[in-house]
Design a protein that fits this description.
- The protein is mostly beta strands.
- The protein has a single domain, classed as Beta Barrel (Porin).
- The protein is built from five helices and 14 strands.
C-alpha cells in the first residue's frame, strides 16, 4: 500500500541490559512532553537480567489490565538485537505472536539463536509473565551491504525491468527516474487534542504516544486512516530505542488507525504483528498509513505502510480476531 501518504542454537539466554550508543539518526529523537493525561517516564523499568517491570504507560485501550501490543513487541525486538550482537547486521524483520494478554506486571525475556550466520541470523525470543509464555518473537538479522546496492524506494520499485531482461544488461545498477525526489507526503498537522478510543482506556499507551491524525475524528473515524505518531516517553529510561523498536512500538496501532467497525460494539484485536524494514526510519515522527479488511467469518487483516518524512521505510501486517463485544 503506497503512502497516501537468537551461545549455541537451542539454548535460552536471559537478555542482559546493555546500553549502546545511539545511531546518529536516533540521536535526533526527542521525547515530547505530555500535555494532557499523566504518564510514567518510560514504558518499562529494569528489574534484573532479562527482567522488566511494565509501567501503567503500557496499558492498552481494550483494558487497563493488559498491555498494548506495541511496547512488549518493541521490548522483544530490543532482546533480538542485543542477543550475541553483531554490528555488521541489522534487524530487518520481526514476527510477533501474542499468545495471550500481556499483564501490566513483571515480564522476563529469554532468547536463543535458531540459525547463526555471517550474512543472516535468525533469533527467537520468548516473553513470560506470571509463569506463562505471553509473547513469542522471531527476527531475521541481515548483513549490512558494504556498498554497491542501489536503494530502490517503494514508489519506484515497479520501475525495475523484468529479471530476465536485467540479466542481459550490464552490471551497472539501473538508473531509475525519480529516485532523488522525495515522495509526496502529507505534512505533520499542528498539535491536536488527545484522542479517545471508543469504549476504551485512554490513560496508558494512548497518552504515551502523540497522535496527529490527517483527517476525521481520530480513532472514531471508520475506514483507512493515516496518523503521524511519536513516543512521548522512551521504552527504557536513559536509552534511545532502536529503529525496529521504534517501528514496532507504533506499528501495532495500524488496526486502530484504520478501524472499520465501531470499537464500542466490536473487538478487533491482533494475534500477531509482522514488521519488515528495508531501511531504518529517520527522525522522530512516524506515519501509519493503514487499511483494514474483514471477512464474514470474523478474521481481519490490517496492512500498514510505515513512513518517515523521507517516505516509506517499512510494512506492518496484523491478523485480527473480530467479534462483537
Amino acid at each position: 500500500m503506497a503512502c497516501r501518504s537468537p551461545m549455541s542454537a537451542g539454548l535460552l539466554h536471559p537478555v542482559v541490559l546493555s546500553l549502546e550508543p545511539a545511531s546518529p539518526a536516533l540521536g535526533q529523537c526527542r521525547f515530547a512532553p505530555v500535555t494532557s493525561r499523566p504518564v510514567h517516564n518510560a514504558f518499562y523499568e529494569p528489574a534484573g537480567p532479562g527482567t522488566f517491570l511494565a509501567t501503567a504507560a503500557t496499558a492498552g485501550p481494550w483494558t487497563e489490565h493488559a498491555q498494548h501490543g506495541g511496547p512488549p513487541s518493541a521490548l522483544a525486538a530490543r532482546a533480538l538485537e542485543l542477543h550475541e550482537r553483531d554490528y555488521g547486521q541489522r534487524l530487518a524483520s520481526v514476527a510477533i505472536d501474542i499468545l495471550r494478554p500481556v499483564p501490566i506486571a513483571k515480564v522476563t525475556l529469554t532468547t536463543r539463536t535458531v540459525r547463526p550466520g555471517k550474512r543472516v541470523t535468525l533469533i527467537d525470543a520468548v516473553m513470560e509473565a506470571g509463569g506463562q509464555e505471553v509473547l513469542h518473537a522471531r527476527g531475521w538479522r541481515i548483513a549490512k551491504s558494504p556498498g554497491g546496492v542501489p536503494a530502490v524506494p517503494e514508489s519506484t520499485a515497479a520501475l525495475q525491468p523484468p529479471r530476465a531482461h536485467r540479466r542481459q544488461e550490464s552490471q551497472k545498477p539501473p538508473e531509475l527516474p525519480g529516485l532523488a525526489e522525495p515522495p509526496d507526503l502529507p505534512e505533520i498537522p499542528a498539535e491536536q487534542p488527545a484522542p479517545t478510543f471508543p469504549g476504551g482506556h485512554a490513560d496508558g499507551y494512548m497518552s504515551a504516544i502523540e497522535w496527529r491524525f490527517l483527517a476525521g475524528a481520530g480513532f472514531r473515524h471508520l475506514g483507512p486512516g493515516r496518523a503521524w505518531t511519536r513516543a512521548r516517553i522512551p521504552l527504557l529510561a536513559g536509552e534511545e530505542p532502536s529503529a525496529m523498536s521504534r517501528a514496532l512500538l507504533v506499528a501495532d496501532s495500524g488496526n486502530g488507525v484504520s478501524a472499520v467497525l465501531d470499537a464500542a460494539q466490536f473487538l478487533f484485536v491482533n494475534v500477531d504483528l509482522t514488521v519488515v524494514l528495508p531501511r531504518d526510519p529517520v527522525g522522530e515522527w512516524l506515519l501509519l498509513d493503514a487499511a483494514t479488511t474483514i471477512g464474514e467469518t470474523g478474521t481481519g487483516l490490517a496492512e500498514t505502510t510505515l513512513c518517515d518524512t523521507r517516505g516509506p521505510f517499512g510494512t506492518a501486517l496484523q491478523t485480527l480476531l473480530v467479534t462483537p463485544r
